[in-house]
Amino acid sequence: MSKNSRRNKKRTSTPNNPNNPNNPNNPKLELDQKHQTEAKQLNDIATEQATETLLESAIAVGKPTTANSDDLCTAVEQAKQAQHIFEALKKETESEKNKLEKQQADLEARISGIKEREQKQQKKQQEINNIKEAQQQEQVCLQQQAKSLDEQEQDIKNRELNAEAGFTQQRHESLSQLEKEAQILRETMSNHRQKILEERSEFEIILESKQNEFIKNQEAKRNKLESDYQKELQKIDKESLSLLKEEAKLNKKHNQLKWDIESLKEDKQSFNEYLEKSIIAEKTEFESKLHSEKQRLIAVEAYRDQLERKLRTYEEAERRIGNRSPEEVFQELESVRKERDEAKAELATRPDHNAQKRLQKLENLYKDAQQRDYEQQQQIQALKRQRDQNQIAVTELEALREQKQSLKSSNDLLQAALEDLRKDVDERIRRADGVSPFPACIAMDSEEAHQTKTSLHDEEINLKTFSEDLRQRVAYDRETQKELFYSQRDIRSFLAGLAMSHLHLLQGISGTGKTSLPLAMARALGAGDGLIEIQAGWRDRHDLVGHFNAFERRFYESEFLQALYLAQCPQYQDRLFFIVLDEMNLSHPEQYFADFISALEQEPQNRILTLMESAVAPAPDLFTEGRKLKIPENIWFIGTANHDETTVDFAPKTYDRAHVMELPRHQEQFEINRQLSPRHPITLSKLNKSFKKAQNKYRQEAEKAYAFIEQQGELLDKHFNLGWGNRLERQMKSYVPVVIAAGGNLVEATDSILATKLLRKLKDRYDNRPEDLKKLRSQLKTGFEGLQLTEKTSQSIRILDYELHRLGED
């Protein structure tokens, strides 16, 4: 399974649902940090478990049928020992698993305790709300009583008026009586009114006292409950924050464990396939060896029977000759032979009857001695063969003889091939005499177009109007009719980056125009360009530059090397030249691009690329010492980068030395001027002169920008452990003035440097604290205030907002 598919699996979970079993925020999936190593050991033990099963199968299949194979018996013993070790590890694994389950249960208990405290706090809040409702109801009752008293007073006043009206109508009938009754009524009403006023005043005093007392008591209770609630809430918040941090750390380790498990499954599958193939191969080899051993055993048994027969013959001969040694038998035989010869000589001279008898006797003795001699010779030969057999087996001698013959044949073939290769090399060297190892570079030296200088735009450059014109020329390609939209801020940043560094890194998601921007800028500036597609397998500079083949005496010149040489030809000597490294982080740039990263830190005259250990002839015209090539000042290396599971991260030193741009997802469209007249290519010297002029004019602004970043240093260092060196100050003195001269402002330039050089290091860090991020955000907004940089256009603020959102702080 590829790295891409693994990371895609990581994204399939639903992070917003805390109960989702695949959600890394689910507490049930959390592991304790100190047991991460133990979890990895569980993976290793799982692999051993699968291996042990297959090993038992291999032992069962490959078990020898005879007791004569010591190697196989040893292998079986080792397998049994491995099985015992595995059983011990399995028990240890079960113990560790129980510990992990216990720790998980403790974690769940802690979470349950926090939930219970939250429920208790909610109950306390409900009690506070109930008390508030009771207080409000009592106030309503008091208001109703006051309203009732007001109604009674109004009724009495109405009755008084009615009475006065009635007395007026009857005045003529009994004035004196009415006056008396009226006086009585007035006195009665006055008494009632006074009494009512006194009672009302007394009631209001009592009511006010009770209200104040009740409000005071309720206020005290509420303050106490709110204080307890706030303390409990702060305690819960601290515990929740601590738990969230712990969950985040464990979540990361859990995801890593998931990836390790997936990788383990793949390794296990590969190992199983390899083991099955190995078992089949070993089984076949074992069966072949077993068959050979059987044949050898049959031959050895036959040879043993033969030796036993000869041994019996030898024992019989030894019995016949007694305890005499073979030398004594030989001496006796020689003596008998001598006597026989003498007898023959005497018989020749004295052929009488006695001589014939004696001769017959001697002949019989000779035959007996000859027979004994033959038997003793056979016994001696048998003893010699037995001695030789003890040193080396006959079959092994035959095998060695055949191996020797095979090696001799192979050696003869290799000698013939070596001779042919020597002839081929000599022929190639003979043909290569007088031919340069760098044919492509030599061809550029002789090509008229590359050796002819072109007319250049030699007018003074106003960076503000130049950047606006450049945006229009980038937006429209007359040849392809293609339209590209980039913001004026991006154009200014790219232009200022040319003044700051010869290494650019363009980042962003796929389809944001990372590769198109430098190529369109080259077209608009009249610059040269070369597009190099980086491959995932590149490991050193030979993959980028090319390599020398000693047999062919030829240097395989890569597209990169040819572009590097072309940039120095007269056609481009005083023009800009962009080498675009597409998908630069598919491999580690710090490996294949290391020589150039180091060279760009040197003075221009010291930027040298060594291609050969010794000088070559004929060498291209632009080579120095016949083996070195200069890295010219008119060349910029522009790398594009995606950040996903198929790529690697840049090293901090690469980020620090480069100009970094983060292209947005969407670019705002604008009206394109399609009637711009063509112009000559921009002169490098004039562009550098305009950069230098801006840097002198806006030097104080650059110092202010650096001072602003220095002001953030204490906060960045104390809470985020971020620092920087003198290189940043040099870069800002080159970058900030050009941005301002091109129509930007101080905050725009400072914001870009702050975001790409420092705050980018805060992304996706699990030790970020929301309160620290908020403090930094507030501090930056205060510093940017009044300079027309909104939160939407500020790269620094967007980075901090992203981190706060990731941590659940909106």
From TrEMBL:
Biased composition (Basic and acidic residues): 29-38
Claim: Coiled coil is one of the keywords in the record: yes
Region of interest (Disordered), residue spans: 1-49
Keyword terms of this UniProt record: Coiled coil
Coiled coil: 79-267, 297-324, 352-431
Biased composition (Low complexity): 15-27
Compositionally biased region (Basic residues): 1-12
Name of this chain's protein: AAA domain (Dynein-related subfamily)
Species of the source: Candidatus Venteria ishoeyi
Species lineage: Bacteria, Pseudomonadati, Pseudomonadota, Gammaproteobacteria, Thiotrichales
